[in-house]
Design brief:
CATH architecture: 3-Layer(aba) Sandwich
CATH topology: Rossmann fold
Number of strands: 7
Radius of gyration: 18 Å
Number of helices: 10
Pathway: Cofactor biosynthesis; biotin biosynthesis
Helix content: 25-40%
EC number: 2.1.1.197
Protein name: Malonyl-[acyl-carrier protein] O-methyltransferase
Order of helices and strands: HHHEHEHEEHEHHEHHE
Shape: globular
Strand order of the largest sheet: 3-2-1-4-5-7-6
CATH superfamily: Vaccinia Virus protein VP39
Structural class: alpha/beta
Largest sheet: 7 strands, mixed
Low-confidence stretches: 1-5, 17-24
Number of domains: 1
Strand content: 15-25%
Pfam families: Methyltransf_11
Distance between the termini: 22 Å
CATH class: Alpha Beta
Function: Converts the free carboxyl group of a malonyl-thioester to its methyl ester by transfer of a methyl group from S-adenosyl-L-methionine (SAM). It allows to synthesize pimeloyl-ACP via the fatty acid synthetic pathway.
Length: 263
């Protein structure tokens, strides 16, 4: 089963490749969520390799490696530019890097003890298949830990665009219940989750959109408008969104689902 609004994988790869240079400046929420993820679900005591999916520029990788003691850490990302930035920022740390697609893991069966993924799973087109492959590569007593966006993410931006047309302008995300069902179907057990809503403030809608662009978080749904958005459409959306300003700022909500599942 795939998302109703299927993702454009080449566009995802291109977006994150292009975003690498300015990613860290725009990634405050990603860093906050990554730190919380590791605090909520710390490394296991078992020996064995730790795999991070979608490592980006290496913030969570650095935290994991700092706690991993002598355990091997493998950081994977679909964009070579992200891996290059991560290697540079984490120079001197014992981390291996792999440029690959999280949906097609080039990893041997039963060789990974733990998998971490921070705000990555929402970019996977076939999430049930991803979980099945994660289950394949994990060892006995291994665990999968990740944070992903939920359906209430950017609900204010969705509502503003809905006044303009019926196209999908904002990426759509699975609910915690749906994700849990996918995990169970893949053979995972002891599935636990916690959902938090982060509300970030921006001086304007354009400031929000610049941040999303800096993160590589473009609209990658195949049901997006095939034509370029006109200036009039964009202005109408902005006026609708900014009509609800609080203290001269707009609010953008991010629903984040923290999950852990065991083999």
């Amino acid at each position: 089963m795939k998302q109703d609004n299927q993702l454009d994988k080449p566009k995802i790869r291109h977006s994150f490749t292009a975003a690498a240079a300015g990613y860290d400046a725009a990634a405050m929420l990603q860093r906050q969520v990554g730190g919380l993820l590791l605090n909520k679900y710390p490394l296991q005591i078992y020996p064995g390799m730790i795999l991070e999916l979608g490592c980006g520029t290496g913030f969570l990788t650095r935290l994991i490696a700092g706690q991993a003691a002598k355990r091997a850490v493998l950081a994977l990302d679909i964009a070579m530019t992200m891996l290059t930035a991560a290697r540079r920022k984490n120079a001197g740390m014992s981390i291996d890097y792999l440029c690959a697609d999280a949906e097609k893991l080039p990893v041997a069966t039963g060789t990974i003890q733990q998998i971490y993924a921070n705000l990555v799973m929402q970019w996977c087109e076939d999430l049930p298949a991803v979980f099945a492959d994660c289950r394949r590569v994990l060892k006995a007593e291994g665990q999968l830990v990740f944070a992903t966006f939920g359906p209430a993410t950017l609900q204010e931006l969705k509502a503003a665009w809905a006044t303009v047309d019926d196209y999908t302008h904002v990426n759509q995300f699975y609910s915690a219940e749906q994700v849990s069902n996918f995990l169970a179907s893949a053979g995972f057990v002891e599935i636990s989750s916690e959902t938090l809503v982060f509300q970030c403030r921006y001086a304007s809608v354009m400031a929000l959109m610049r941040e999303l662009k800096g993160l590589g978080a473009h609209n990658v749904n195949s049901t997006r408008n095939p034509k370029a958005t006109t200036r009039q459409q964009l202005q109408a959306m902005i006026e609708n969104y900014e009509s609800s300003k609080l203290d001269e700022e707009i609010v953008a909500s991010y629903e984040v689902i923290f999950m852990r599942a065991s083999v």
